[in-house]
Structures are given as structure tokens and as C-alpha cells.
Amino acid sequence: MIPLSWYLILSAALFSIGLFGVLARRNAIAILLGVELMLNAVNINLVSFWRYGDVTQMAGQVFAIIVFAVAAAEVAVGLALIISVYRTRKTVVADELDLMKW
Amino acid sequence: MATETLIWLLPLPPVLAFFLIVLFTNKNKAFSHTIGVGAAALSWLGSMVVFFRALGVEHLGEHPFASSIPWLPTGETWLRIGVLIDPLGAAVLFFVAWTIFMIFLYSVGYHNFGQPEGDHDRPGLQPHGATVTDEHGHKHVVPSVEPMYSRFFAFLGLFAFGMYTLVVSDNLLTLFVGWEIMGLCSYLLIGFWYGKESARNAAVKAFMTTRVGDVFMLLGIAFLYSATGTLTFREIFTEEVLHALATTATPILGLSAAGLIALLLFIGTVGKSAQWPLHVWLPDAMEGPTPVSAMIHAATMVSAGVYAVIRMFPLLTADFDGHTLTTTMSVVAFIGAFTALFAATIAVAQNDIKRVLAYSTISQLGYMIAALGIGAYVAAAFHLITHAFFKALLFLGSGSVIHGMEHGVLHTGNHHVDPQDMFNMGGLRKKMPITFWTFLIGGFALSGFPLITAGFWSKDEILADAFGHGHWAVFVTLAVAAFLTAFYTMRQITLTFLGEPRTKEAEHAQETPWTMTAPLVVLAFFAVTYGWVGIPEHFPLLGGILPNWFHGFVGSTLTEEPEALPFNFIPLMTSLVVALGGLLLGWLAYRNVKTPAEDKLQIPLLKNKWYFDEAYDFLFIKPAYWFAETFVYKWMDKGVIDGILHAFGHATAFLGTWIRAYIDKAIINELMGDGSARLTQWFGGRLQPIQTGRIQQYMLASLGVLIVVGGLMFSLLVK
Amino acid sequence: MTILFFLFAAIILASAVMVVSARNLIHAALWLVSTLFGVAALYALLDAGFMAVVQVVIYIGAIAILFIFAVMLTRRELRDKGPALNANWWLSALISVLVFGGLLFLLSAWSGFSKASAGLPSGFDAVGALGEALVSPQAFVLPFEVASVLLVAAMIGAVYVALKQK
After folding, report:
1. Does residue C83 form part of some domain?
2. Which of B194, B432, B445, B625 is 20 to 30 Å from the Cα of B473, by its Cα?
3. For the whole model, what pTM was predicted?
């Protein structure tokens, strides 16, 4: 059978890839894509723990559903922000959005 | 009242008068002179009571009136002060009381009490006359009242206090206290008209010169106290103490302790009694009002000097064997005789009526000192008392003359005429008869006119003593001085009173009021009669009629009464010759002299007092001024002391600026203050680029730190 | 089963790598869709059927579509011409690897790391239980409702932020 560790390793890997995407991508929208990957890794983790723990406890799944909701909300707002920023700054390159500095 | 208590009270009225006048009655002239004269009268009354009681005591010398109190605690014992009236004290008290009283009374008239206030009189200057308009509208100028009238009586009271204290005291300490009080008062009174620069200078000169003497006197007193442990006369003049002092040797000039102490005390007298070389203050002291001159130069202060030596006679003669004079006695005799001649030579060439008398005083004091130097105790005391009377008389008489002349000056209005210059006088016997006759009596007494004047008897006794004990140098010197004395006295009388008035002012001279002439008469009485209490026993014809009361009385003060000398004709003849000869010559020489130019004795050397003032100025005054102005003030005070202070100031300023520049500004401000700011700024500048504003870089940084810290903590904490 | 797992895992990981490295955004979005499909399959493997369906419907059907719409509708404006990765990509790679390693290290120390799965209890209605949990007051109704409020807020926020100001 599949031990829990495989799922956890998978989610850790997915998380790291998502992290790489967030840290390394130039385009702001691409960064959001990376964030989605990280969220999905989290969800895998949650569901795995549900399945490999006490199955009657639905908390794992509920948590995962809430994460869905949050992810959806976050994407919507994030994209809206990027559009708004583009309107003023005329760029979507994350490196060029550097107003939060000295 | 017990006599001792009365003696304690004698000095009190004058000093009370001083305080009362100064504190309360200064503005009221009548009150002031009432208090002053009243105080003098009270003390005179008390003195007379004491004197007559003293006369009644058998062997007063052995049982004097004495009373003392313990005063200063000195370890186990006490320093005592007190009063003593022995025969010498009684005799001196007599003349002091009379002369002081007469002078107080005289001052009322002298300072023109009752006259109107002057036109432009100011306190500090002599009064210059007041213009009065009589009922016909005629204006004439009359003498004006002295503006500082009350002050005069106050000072005179203090002066009297000093003298009474000195006379009644039984110890050297209170004697010295009285001495110094009189020194102070002489300063205050000589400089009475302080608006005049010459008066101010004379006052300072008097004080300074006598001070020189006083310093030595104090040394003598200190030495005496340390040698004997007491200052009371009767305790010092005991056989044991005197013997001990006479046999103790001192390293100075081979003198015994007694001799040295006596010499030091004598130097005080040299100052106070204006003997050579400290004589220079007395002629200048004529700047004071005439009663002051009488007070200081006849009645009291200078007499105090001689009195002090007479008091210390046992000490002076402690190692005297009766024949050869000790060193100290030789010094005393020399100074006395020299001064007598020296001053007489100067008096001959003076034109101011008071100056003649001043030098005459110096000369006569020299007589007394010389007498003491050769051991003639009684003669010296006798001459002291007779001199007090006739010199006070002469001074007050001269004051009267000057007053009369000033009347004339005010009448003519010519203020360039000096009322004191004898060559402006003449013929005053007609204008001022009382003054003339009393002055004549006084002058004859001074010259030693035989038999009817007191001066004859006292002077003759000194000469007899000098001759009888074989002191030829002293005898001859004193005889020559006597001749000169008679000569200049007659010169003075001739120029002032005889002949015709030489100036308009002399023509308008007037006799002075009774307050001035009454004292003259009283003093003239004593100048005549006092001599008769001291007629030597073996005098031809007259000796024996009246006992020589004075010799017996005053002589009994000493433990061994001095023996009376056998009579010798030579000193008598000498004194007759010099006295009468001098008087005759003086009259002959001057009866036709009208101007100073005709006066052959106006030799510059004599007129200028043998240039002693100039010499002292060069030797002492100028160096003293140099020392004060240049050495002490310029070099030490400004140069050294201020220099040190300025150096401190500069050093502090320099240190301050250095600290400011190199520590405060450089280190604290620059290095620490600004430096830390710059360091922070530099760090900030270096760290600034980290804040790029790029979120991905922030995340990288935070994750990196998370990994590092997490790894660190994991490795450290999880074992 | 294991083979399925490896298959799906490979799909997920390969698609994820392509997501983060595709230069063209549409490609990246499409690769995301692929990843999400893989995750959904995995859910099914984990007997979380509802989750799998919801994954497909919500994540792919809504979120990924939203991405694609946004990219497509703003392609002209938001076109990106430069390279896909920024200058610090190597540092990012390093960090990611370290994070991965760190996570694994931590997980491996956990006792339940190699747990085997237990069987499902018979007659267990996972979906029903989930439904009950979501609406039961003793369970998770509150987070459920709050999540809906969150969605409303997000919606309003997004509309407001993206609204073109006149």
C-alpha cells in the first residue's frame, strides 16, 4: 500500500515547486500561478492526513474546502490588483513594482 | 568719697563730655561748651581735692593713694591696672588740672562764641569774618564763630581724658593707652581745619613721627613685661626687680636690661616730646588752633613724654652708681642738651609768633631731658611743672595777640596780611595791655628772670645740678641755650608789643574778651609764684625762709630721697648773666628793626631749621613713597599679584579654548556625536539597498534567514 | 494502486514544473489546469470523491478559467516580452530545494511518517459526513458561513479594485 510518506513527499515537492515559481517568476500573474500550486500542495497534505488519520473526523476535508474558498477569493482579488497596478504603473513585472522601499 | 575712688573718677568727665557732645549736642554750641568746660571744671575740682588730701598725708611716697583691679587673666596670674597718686603724681596732677581747665575756658573766647556766623565759612576751614550792618547802615566785618565749634570741645575732652588717664595710672599699660589717645587727638586737633592742605599734612606728620617713637616704646614695654612679669610701677621699682634688671646683660650695645628698656621707653619720649631727631612734627603742629598748641605743647602731650621718663627714673638709674653716667643716661643727657641748643638756634630766626614758641618748647623739653640724663630728678620735675604754666601762658597769650591782629585784618579787609607774622605787629602793648603784661611775665619766666619768675628757680636748679655733679658739657650747652632763650624771647616781645605799630592791622588791634584774658591772668599768677615752693635751702638770703617743699615732697617719691646739693655761686652767676644778658641784648638788637630785611639773624640755615625736614624727606619720606607707589603698588600688587591672577586667567582661558577645540569639538562633538551619527548613516546607507521594494527579494531574504535560524536553533536545541 | 499514484504524481510534478517555467502565460495556465487534474485524480485515489469533483469544478472550472480569461482579455496590455524568470532564479531554486529538504527532514522525524492507510469503515458515507460536518452547528457551520462572507468580500473587493475609474 501507499504509505503516507509518499503523499507528504509529493506535497512537499509540489510546494517547493510552487515556491520556486513565486520567488523566481518575473510576471506577477505567473507568481499567482505559483501560489496556486502551493495551495494545492497544502490541500493534498490536508486530505492525506484525513485519509490516513481518523476518517470519521471530517475536519481535514472541511479545512481543504475552506482553502478552496480562500484560494478562489485570493485569485480574484489578486488579479484585480494586478490590473489596477498595471493601470497606474504600466507594468506587470514584479521587479519593477518597487515602491515599497526607501 | 574715698580718695582712691575719686582718683578713678578723674578722667571720667572729659570722656563723657566727648561722647555727649558727639552724640547729642553737636548742633548746639552753648550746650557743647558748657558740657566741655563743665567737665574740665569737674575734673579740676576733683584733682584739687586729691591734691590737697595728698598734701596732708605723711610720707606720701611710702603710702601713696593706690587702687588696682585685676584685669587681664594671664595664666596663673592677672595683669592688674589701677590708679596711683604718689607725690610726683600729685604735683603733676595739679598743673595738668589747672592748665586743662584754663585752656577749655580760653577756647570759648578763642573760637568767637557769641559772634555771628561767617559770610562764607565752611566746616574744615578757619572762620573768615561776618559782615554786620549797624543801625546807621554802616557795614563792618567782625570775627565770625568757628563752624566746627562743638567738635573742638569734643576732641579737647578726649584729649583731656587721655592726659588724666596717663597721669593717674599706676602701670605702663594704661599710661601707654593715655599716650596713644593723646596721639590720636593730636592728629585730630592739629588737622582740625582739615580743609587746609598744610593742616592735613601737619596732622599726618605729627602722628607718623610720634608713631616712630611709640613703636620703640611698645618694644620697651613688651621687654619689661617679659623680663619682670608685671607692668605696675610699684612692683617694678622694688630693690629685687631693679637689681635683677640692672644685672641682666643684653646683646645690644653692652646695655643691661634696665638700660635697654629705659632707652626704648626714652625713644617714645623722643617722639612724643619732639626731641631731636624726631622734633620735626612740633613746629608744623602750629597749624592747629592756638588752644590746641597750648594743650599739646605745654600742658599735656609733650609734658607726658617727660613725665614718662621721670616715672621710669628708677629704671633709668638702676645701674647708676651716682657718679659716672651709664650709657643710657649719657644718651638721654646728650639728646636733651643737644636739642635744647639746637632748637634755640632755630627759634632765633623765626618770624611767626607761634613758631618761636614751638621751638622754644622743644628747647625747654631738652632741658628737662638733659636734667634727667644727669640724674637730677627733682630739678627735671620742677622745670616740667613751671614750664607747663608759663608755656601755656605764652601760647594762650600768642593766641590772644593773633586774635587781636585778626580783628585788625577784618577791619582793613586786607587778607594778605599774616596776623601771625611778628614783623606785622608792634606797639601792641597799648592796644592789648592785659595780654602784654601776662605775656611779659611768661616770657621772663621762660628766660629765667631772677627771683620773681618760676622759670628762674627751675632752670637754675638744673644748671646747678649739672655743675655740681661735674657734667661740664651739659652745663655749658644748657647755659648757651639759656642765653639764646632769653635773647629770642626778648626779640619776640620787642617785635610784638614794643615800639610802634608797623601795619594798619596792628593799629586796629583790640584786646580780647574776658574768657581769653582771665586764663592768662591765672596762669601768670602761677608762673610767678610756683617757683617759690622750690627755693633751695642754701640759697643766699632767701633760702630757708620758705622750706623747699617741692624738693621734699616730690623727692619722696623715690625710695631714696635725693640729697639737696650744696649751694654754689657759679651756676647762679651763670644763669643770671645769661638771662639778663640775653634779655638786654634782645631788646637792644630789635627795638629799631622794622622789616625782616634788617634782621641780621635771618640766616637761611636757621630759618630753614637746619634743613632737617628736607633731609628726612629725602631719606625717609621719598623712599617710603617710592616703596608704596612703585614697589608695592606697581610691582608687587599690580605686577606680581595681578600678574599671577592674570596668568591664571590666561591659563584658564587657554585651557578652556584648548578643551573646547580639541576635546569638546573634536572628540565629543565630531567623533562621538557627529561620528556616531555618521556611522549610523553609513550603515544605513550600506543597508539601504537591501530594501529594494521587490517582494520576491524580500521573500528570498526572509526564507533564507528562516532556514539559517531554523537550522541553527535545530542544531543547538535538538540534541 | 501504486502505479496510479506514481502516474498521477508524475503528471502533477511535471505539469507543475512546466507551470513555473513556461514563458507564455497561456501555456502556464494550461499547464496549471493539467496539474489540477492530477491533483483531482489524487483526491479520488484518497477516497475523497467530493474533493476530487470540487477540485475539478472549482479550481479548474473557476479559478483556472479565471486565469485564462484574465490573461486572454488583457493579453494586449499585459503582454510580457522579457524572460520568464527574474535575475535571482538560482537563489530561488536553492531556497526551494532547501525548503524541500527541510520539510522532508522534519517530516521524517515524525513517528507517523510511514503510516499505512487504514481501510474505510463499511457503510461509511464520506460525502454525507462531509455535508453534515459543513452544516452542523457542532461542527463547521461557522467557518463555512464565514467562508461565504469571505467570498462576498473578495468579490466586492476585486470589482472595486479593478474598476476603471472614470
Report:
1. no
2. B445
3. 0.67
